Amino acid sequence: MSYLAHIADRVVNRPLLILPEKAAVIVSVLSGRIGLDAPEASRFEGSWSDPATEGRNSRPFKSTQDGVAVLTVTGSLVNRGAWIGANSGLTSYEGIRHQLKAIGEADDVHAAILDLHTPGGEAVGAFETAEAVRELAAKKPVIAVVNGMAASAGYALASGATEIVTTETGMAGSIGVVLLHADFSKYLETEGIKPTLIFAGAHKVDGNPYEPLTEQVRSDLQDEVNAFYESFLRTVSAGRGQRLTVDAARSTEARTLIGPAAVDAGLADRVGSFDSILAELSSRARSGRGSTVQKRSISMDSSTGTPAAETSVISQAQHETAVSTARREGEAAGAQAATGRLATVLGAEGIKGDGRRMGAALDLAVKSASMSADDVVAFVTGNVAATPDVKQTDTSAAEHEDKRMAGSSLAQPSTDKTQKSGLAARIDRHANRT
């Protein structure tokens, strides 16, 4: 079978999740000749494409000794293809799903890296494969690394991961759909070829390459593209949650952003590299601290197609930064609350403006930090007499206070300056109880 016919069957008049530049290359290829045989494909789960590995009892993915699986996705993506990895520049969703399933079932694998360098591919099969990525991420952390490019269908796969890390020059996004129609009618006319289509069913030959599109057929094809686009947006939101909602994904207008710009737009979570992520996951496995990210649990709102709830998905560095920030904010809030408490106590009715009661209230509030402002005020106003309004000399005022304190059993008869007054002792005892 000619590979030309194989390509044409996959891309012409089909919605594609692929970069427009790649579609242009396909058009140029279709207009020429190539001599490759088509890869075999079937509905069965894949096998190794490398004959040297056939017959071996090997798992369909690479993994490190530390239990980190690596699933590499490169080239254009197609739905059917019973092989693992790239074959003649194509990677099949069928093979990817088989690998994801195997990683999920491997007890010795604690995390996975989705190593992406792909411009996208067929729309059919992309969203089902993205769902398989989400299912694995619900069991084990999956880090999607934009190791060059994760565009269109490639980004759909990445969106299902626990976290997306892009390289400094990695290209992510292109959340959109394109459909290619090739009109060869003028070319055939020049070559003296007049095709005749004999068919049954009014729409059987809609979009055929031998005649221009009618407005009705164009409208129908646009509706098909729009339907895939809405599914694409829901798929991205199902994986990214509040980090990239349906509306936020739509607002990108299918742009492809690079490195930090992708992070700013919510297309990725941070900038890194394949090597740094592999080292990070391996190091955590060796230290026994587990993975770098938390597993997600997402419930979907069926009416909107968006996640109803999502747990935090953060790196260890982000966690430590958040803890440090929370500690600083907590200390500041505590200091503010303490200041406010003292202000309430000293400004309360029966305390404010009375030097004796203000001193006692301040002493009790400091010594008994767990007491509320109201309790401090109640204790002081109930146990400390207000400063007399009658003006006295210093000597008579002191004598008056000694007599009042002695009469209320608050004063101590001793003249020893190291011994506390009865009020001070009661405050200490009350503070110790609280």
Question: Would you write up a description of this structure?
Answer:
The chain is of the alpha/beta class and 434 residues long. The protein contains 15 helices and 15 strands. It has helices at 3-11, 20-30, 93-105, 126-139, 153-159, 185-190, 215-240, 246-251, 260-264, 274-287, 316-346, 355-367, 373-383, 394-407, 422-433; strands at 15-18, 47-48, 62-63, 68-78, 83-84, 90-92, 111-122, 142-151, 163-166, 171-173, 178-179, 256-258, 270-271, 299-301, 306-309. Strands 1, 3, 4, 6, 7, 8, 9, 10, 11, 12 and 13 form an eleven-stranded mixed β-sheet that branches. The protein has a two-stranded parallel ribbon with strand order 2-5. Strands 14-15 form a two-stranded antiparallel sheet. Strand 8 (142-151), helix 5 and strand 9 (163-166) form a beta-alpha-beta unit. It is elongated and about 120 Å long.
Strand content: 15-25%
| Nearest-integer average pLDDT | 76
Any low-confidence stretches, pLDDT <50, length ≥5? 1-5, 29-57, 291-313, 390-395, 407-419
User: Secondary-structure element order, as H and E?
Assistant: HEHEEEEEHEHEHEEEHHHEHEHEEHHHHH
Sketch the major β-sheet: 11 strands, mixed
Global morphology:
elongated
C-alpha termini separation: 89 Å
How many strand segments?
A: 15
Helicity, as a percent range: 40-55%
The helix/strand class is: alpha/beta
What's the total helix number? Answer: 15
Rg, nearest Å: 37 Å
Defining key terms:
434 residues; two-stranded parallel sheet; alpha/beta; eleven-stranded mixed beta sheet
